[in-house]
Amino acid sequence: VLCRSHALYRRSVNTWSAVGAAFNVQHQRFEHLQKNVGLFGVPELSGPAGFQMAQHQALREAEFLVHKACTHPPGAVTVETFDQLSDSLCRVADLADFIKVAHPDAAFREAAERTCVEIGTVVEILNTNVDLCQSLKNLLGNEAVLATLDSDTRRVAELFMFDFEISGIHLDYSKRSKAVALNVKLLDLYHEFLSGSQLPNAIDKQVLPEHIRHCFSIDGNRVQIGGLHADSPNELVREAAYKIFLYPNTSLLLCLDELLACRHELATLVGYESFAHRALKGTMAKTPETVMKFLKLLTEKLSDRTSKDFKMMKEMKKKTHTTNPEVMPWDHAYLSSAIRTEMFNIDPSIYSPYFSLGACMEGLNCLFTQLLGVYFQAEQPKMGELWSEDVRKLAVVHETEGVLGYIYCDFFRRPDKPHQALHFLICVLRDDGVYQLPVVVLMLSLPPPSGRTPSLLTPSMVENLFHEMGHAMHSMLGRTHYQHVTGTRCSTDFAEVPSILMEYFASDYRVLSQFARHYQTGEPLPENLVSRLCESKRVCSAADTQLQIFYAALDQVYHGKPQYRSTTDILREMQEKFYGLPYVNDTAWQLRFSHLVGYGAKYYSYLMSRAVASMVWRQCFLQDPFSRVMGERYRREMLAHGGSKEPVLMVQGMLQKTPTIEDFVDALVLDLNANVKSSV
């Protein structure tokens, strides 16, 4: 299938290719006489009770594979068996993880939740199975057998052993029991902290001035404040929300203290200097010292730009007739937005008619065809395969290799659906003679088509779509022998590189001009609109980056060696060192930092991934964003390996040099400073 980018819009603007039509028309119809094939074509999942059956089958298969791993002589088959064991459980757990948040039917969600708990319990038990671990030790301790293994097999064996070691299985019985108890306790603390971090704070309504009470939720005599209201034009609303929403909760402070202490104790118990040292093993950064060097150097290089940004904010604040001339933490988002509006007046509604969802999907189709020889094919789903009739199914097809995998596009808003942009692995690639094709779900929250009006996207929605499609193509184009390390199953500070790289394509006029046409008139998107949008994104971008540096530094210090002082005292110090706006007394922002659970000691990853993506864009795609030569190198060096290769080696292969921390920092600074042709 050749890209028809130039011919595409010589047709009537109301006719679409199969891919465009799949997204720009209202929902598909099913033949109700069809047999229900079950969610994702899994026959057992034609009803909620099927989760119990799928779980039972997975556990039976796991039991057989555990026996095989423990009784078979050490060799490549040991790693194959571990990989099959991981896959048998992940196939059910990953699917259930998705269904528990996405299915509109509560019965399905509850059944999926129960399955997640059950499979999770089994995984915890397997991580402390001494005989299972011993079979891997026998392999890794046998130099003669190790010499016969290829590098991928050896790396996967080491990764499985790492999973065992962080559970403390190599310790004596007493210490192992302690490690198990700490892991169990941490699960409870994670749940408590995440739940608490989302709860609103309440205050007597008499405390607030009467003229701003209506801005918040009122419950009797109490005002509920569930967010920062950072975009409110009313300074008093922003200040009140900040001080009340971030007011310290004593029990949650204790929960966080306990969570950090448990993590540190567990890390030292299994042989690491700190939790950060344990978390960073196998990443691009490798050590906490490298991360802090990166954050400090970036702060130094940005200091002049950051100071200018805060000065601009101060000037803008003067124009608002404020009573407090100093820029405060509750002002940052509002003032930077106000400056962008004053300088560029970007109105998303001017852009959205040019970005119908169907046109954007055709644009992605053309881009991937030119770069990678890959195209989308709209598939007709079978009865029962989807959880909602507005979901679209795409086959991802290579021009010579055939079908690579499937993407289920859950793009439209609906009640009780998460509002975040998310990428879910449902089934990942495994090669045990026959490839098991990857299946992913991309979830967005876009406006659905209405009547003759297709789904129209704002520029930020387009960027989100390209970002999530970057994750999907990472999953599709990974071709590892082992599912344990395929696609996005790689180090956290590398996993965001393919998705962030796609944001650069989404901001390049040469790419946008291939598909961005007014859905009614066919008029192309004017180039000056794209230029203004790109320039507007750089307004206050140094201060925005500095805020992310502060969060990353705070995360590192929390997970480093014990400080023997409160998390609030650490916050105050890190804010002074790494942000530039003052700490506000009687606030505890760390209690709203929910990323501490899922990204403990790894919050820096987004900044480092962006640095790598920036370097790849400038060196490989800036000159020609459609280069097939560079697209093939990108697939070969970065997308194909998943976690089977050291991340820094993948970057080295793509850039054909070994980047330093200074290179990463310079790439980020260049992004913020340079008005690069055709690029953000």
TrEMBL record:
Chief location: mitochondrion
InterPro entries, sorted: M3A_MIP, MetalloPept_cat_dom_sf, Neurolysin/TOP_dom2, Pept_M3A_M3B, Pept_M3A_M3B_dom
Protein name: Mitochondrial intermediate peptidase
Pfam families hit by this protein: Peptidase_M3
Lineage of source species: Eukaryota, Metazoa, Chordata, Craniata, Vertebrata
Domain Peptidase M3A/M3B catalytic: 229-668
Catalytic reactions of this protein: Release of an N-terminal octapeptide as second stage of processing of some proteins imported into the mitochondrion
Assigned GO CC terms: mitochondrial matrix
Cofactor: how bound: Binds 1 zinc ion.
Taxonomy, superkingdom: Eukaryota
Family membership: Belongs to the peptidase M3 family.
Assembly and oligomerization: Monomer.
Entry EC no(s): 3.4.24.59
